[in-house]
Design goal:
seven-stranded mixed beta sheet; two-stranded antiparallel sheet
Length: 253
């Protein structure tokens, strides 16, 4: 695994420039991959709610928002089965759908060594209030890394513009094997070349950690309609800008 021991990676401006062609929202297909499955639910929140529940709820809201914005070919991807086999299933399904973009939707936790014990409504649970925030991941092994990065920058930029901040811990040594290179220290885009759903898909792909559900305060925020609407509107704005580039601040191609 390549780590961020030397700090953020400096990217050339050309890596962030939009493609010349515009897309047609009526035919453009973005697949929203619901992270984890009903059988393998991912992280457990500070209040004992499975990550899969958060992922599915947010993915449905983003789907509704994109379709309302004219992206009628948006597809929600639900996968069944255990963790690792489901990863290959979702890659195959996304490829069969001939998607133009894939976004895998998740909610964050921390390594087990950082967890603390507490009780919620009489049940034992775990929490960590140490970190919070969103993060966006891309794989340099994706067949179209440049486009994946461009879309990741748009999503992260829109979330930052809404007043959200990114999770900074992934660039820190304390994360151990979960440490990853920070590609943009301003918006919070990371590289993770180990994620099958980003490496093996035939289309540009990103993974969004929408926020931390192991952080007690942020879990409460992630449950609020206000935060859910803010995230879904940020994603929709990013998709629209991807199709209609307005990157004047970055200068000409």
């Amino acid at each position: 695994m390549r780590l961020a021991a030397l700090g953020p990676v400096t990217l050339p401006l050309s890596a962030l420039k939009p493609a010349a062609a515009k897309c047609d929202p009526a035919t453009f297909r973005i697949v929203l991959d619901v992270g984890h499955t009903a059988q393998s639910e991912g992280a457990i929140s500070a209040r004992n709610v499975a990550e899969f529940t958060f992922n599915l709820r947010l993915a449905k809201l983003i789907e509704e928002r994109l379709k309302a914005e004219g992206f009628a070919e948006t597809r929600l991807l639900l996968t069944e089965g255990k963790a690792r086999p489901s990863l290959f299933k979702r890659v195959a399904a996304a490829n069969n759908l001939h998607a133009d973009l894939l976004m895998s939707i998740h909610h964050d936790s921390v390594p087990n060594k950082m967890l603390e014990d507490w009780e919620f409504e009489g049940k034992k649970s775990h929490f960590s209030d140490r970190f919070n925030g969103y993060s966006v991941f891309v794989s340099r092994d994706n067949p179209d890394f440049k486009t994946s990065l461009r879309f990741a920058e748009l999503v992260a930029g829109e979330m930052k513009a809404q007043g959200l901040h990114y999770a900074e811990q992934y660039s820190q040594a304390i994360m151990g094997r979960y440490q990853h290179p920070l590609l943009n220290k301003d918006t919070g885009v990371y590289s993770n070349d180990e994620l099958i759903v980003l490496r093996k898909t035939a289309m540009p792909a990103i993974l969004l950690e929408a926020g931390s559900i192991i952080n007690r305060d942020e879990e409460r925020e992630m449950n609020s309609p206000e935060r859910q609407n803010l995230i879904s509107s940020s994603v929709a704005s990013a998709v629209k800008e991807f199709c209609e580039p307005r990157w004047a601040l970055l200068g000409p191609p």
